[in-house]
Amino acid sequence: MKTILIAISILIGLTSAFASERFDAAAWNNVQTYDVPTLLKQEGSLIGKIVAVRFHYRSEKLRHLQPNWYEASLWQHDPNAKNGYSALRIMVAKKDVPDFKTITSDFNAMKDVTVYGRVEKDPDNNLAHLRLLGRKVVKDAAGNVTVDW
Fold this sequence. Notes:
Elements: H1 2-17, E1 21-23, H2 25-28, E2 32-35, H3 36-42, E3 50-55, E4 57-58, E5 63-66, E6 69-77, E7 85-93, H4 97-100, E8 113-121, E9 128-134, E10 136-139, E11 145-148
């Protein structure tokens, strides 16, 4: 009995570790792409929505906030911002941190990078953030989409 419970626990752990997000065609057709400054202005009205975000680099530091979540930020050069950059607060699942770290943290980077995520509101501090889902999109014949790293 103990062996069976251990085997089931391992299978559940492996399944969740490699799980990707799947969306039907109708939901995916409503996904819009934003740059960081535009998303920052509209994030309050986008709570619960899946979005694509274009940016230039990620923050070097990741803060381990909860057992399975890290906080970081996505940065984009913005001539209209006071310091020349706009930053978006994000949450990354612990299992996705190695993939997230493959994104450049070089602040001189000018190449657009796109990630997909869900805009959420943190109940503890009432701030919005983007919960990252991945970078790669695979569409099947029916138009359904899987987002993964």
